[in-house]
Amino acid sequence: MGERIYDVGIIGGGIVGLATAMALVKAGVASVAILEAEDKLASHQTGNNSGVIHSGLYYKPGSLKALNCVAGREALYRFCREQGIVHEACGKLVVATRRDELPALAALEQKGAANGLKKLRRLDASELREYEPHVAGIAGLWVGETGIVDYKQVCERYAAVIRSGGGEIRLGFRVHGVARDGGELRLSSTAGEVSCRNLVNCAGLHSDRVARLCGVKPGLQIIPFRGEYFKLLPARYGLVRNLVYPVPDPRFPFLGVHFTRMIGGGVEAGPNAVLAFKRHGYKKTSFSLRDAGEFALYPGFWIMGLKFWKMGFGEFYRSFSKRAFVKALQRLLPDIQAEDLEPGGAGVRAQALEANGFLADDFRIREAERMVHVLNAPSPAATASISIGESIAAIALKNFALAGK
Q: Phi/psi of residue 258, each to 5°?
């Protein structure tokens, strides 16, 4: 009996890859395989996610982020209810602590309204403390659609749906070669080879490399940014009722250090956004000559660095100075002290950077012959995963002529 040839092979077992596979299985595609490099699913960006179900507040109306976040948020809430996944639509507070932040706060409110949010409420200083008694600010915005969930559990349920629909999940399959063989694509790895008629690249931190393996020029470089967290000690959980965010700097695709109540208990504080010298650089000491060398030789990195060096220096300083990290947190919660915090985890964000130094903010999906490459899918990708997965599957079904199989 010959080797099985999959209709679609999906590189990457994070939440976007799983959601895409789930959508393809539900659409009746005969054979779908997730090819994951690690020995478990959701090992990187998804598994180190803070667990926020984003509302759609921050994103430019009409952008892929805005459209998919709003649709994906509601789809995710439905999925959690149907599957019995513990979640909570707890809401969050965005706090302005300075007068010069008020225009950006007003712009956020306008974006949220344009994106269809119905549970927005503008707050004055006294009203802020009705929601979060320990918060200090001059104005704020309550966002009722925001929620919390454990995305590892979400991924487990996605995987169960995939398997029940006949899809396969192959772990420990790190792709290092892609070759065309007639009408098929042969993917090689240390775990053997797989053939598929069509390919979807959802490799996250390695999406640009996988695209190049496929002979596709991605037009961007993945630059890893590490986000580091502290955790509140149990005795200080009462400082935060739900989620508390600052008004973000609109120049950057990061939201600033904030407080997040976790669905499994506890409160996280962070993250910062510090350049990582390894794509899986979860520790301050993590270093890869290959990874660091790649972005050091990339023109866009130096353009970005010259433009934003001051911000970058501040992030590095907070990375090594707990005192500086606490000072940033105290802008939102003055009562918090260094002794209230213990080290938490860290995650690495795959940030797409163009050659002109532009930090790609929206999702980037590129089509090629028999291929779809997801080249930039940062936050809110987890929130939007069902919607993104359906969109990618629709491209695959159209391009690969798999409808009805």
A: -150, 180
Extents of the domains making up the chain: 5-46+152-219+362-400, 221-353
Please give the span between the terminal C-alpha atoms of the chain, in angstroms, as a whole number. Answer: 22
Stretch (H or E) spanning 103: helix 102-114
Domain at 5-46+152-219+362-400: CATH code: 3.50.50.60
Specify the length of the chain in residues.
405
Based on its alpha-carbon atoms, the radius of gyration of the chain, rounded to whole angstroms, reads 21
Cα-to-chain-centroid distance, residue 240: 24
Tokens of 343: 């080290």
What is the C-alpha separation between 400 and 397, in angstroms, rounded? 5
Point out the residues of the chain with pLDDT beneath 50. Answer: 1-2, 402-405
pTM above 0.85, yes or no: yes
| Contact of 209 with 176, CB cutoff 8 Å | no
Q: Which two tokens stand for residue 89?
A: 């639509």
73-124 pLDDT, tens per residue? 999 999 999 999 999 999 999 999 999 999 999 999 999 999 999 999 999 9
Going by C-alpha positions, the residue among 40, 307, 324 that lies closest to residue 172 is 40
* Distance from C-alpha of 389 to C-alpha of 395, rounded to nearest angstrom: 10
Task: Write out the H or E segment, with its range, that includes residue 76.
Answer: helix 64-83
CA–CA dist 277, 279 (Å, integer)? 7
- Token duo for residue 133: 């008694």
What is the Cα–Cα distance from 150 to 156, expressed in whole angstroms?
10
Best CATH choice for the domain 221-353 from the list 1.10.260, 3.30.43, 3.30.70, 3.30.9: 3.30.9
What angle is formed at CA 268 by the lines to CA 266 and CA 272, rounded to 5 degrees? 170
3-class SS of residue 35: strand
Q: Show the tokens assigned to 273.
A: 């956004």
Q: What is the pLDDT of residue 253?
A: 63
User: Hunting for tokens 């487990």 — which residue is that?
Assistant: 156
